[in-house]
Amino acid sequence: MHGGYMHSKLQILKYEGLESTRPTAPPAETLFGTELRRFLRALGLDEKLVKSLDNYNFSETSRYGFIHSITQASLPAVARDARA
């Protein structure tokens, strides 16, 4: 926390040239991948961006959780609904 504001930062790195290592079947969904998508949707990111995560294999994250917190000011949809 800095100056009363909470900042969110997320980095997804895409490595080019790894197409040959991709599995032919889509990987099983993990809790990490599910929560990451939920977080991005809650922030109001474009669905096309969220769906692009389907190109990534999150199977190695099966033993990890995705812990997040979002302030109400960061939630455009929630803030709009609360005012309605």
Description:
With 84 residues, this protein is an all-alpha fold. It has one domain. The chain has 3 helices and no strands. The protein is globular and about 40 Å long. The two termini are 30 Å apart. The mean pLDDT is 72.
Question: Mean of residue pLDDT?
Answer: 72
Shape: globular
Secondary structure tally, helices: 3
- Helix share of residues? 25-40%
Radius of gyration: 16 Å
Number of distinct beta strands: 0
| Secondary structure category | mainly alpha
Q: Mind summarizing the main beta sheet?
A: none
Unreliable sequence segments: none
Span of the ends, CA to CA:
30 Å
Beta-strand content estimate: under 5%
Looking at this protein, list some descriptive labels.
3 helices, globular, mainly alpha, 0% strand, single chain, 84 residues
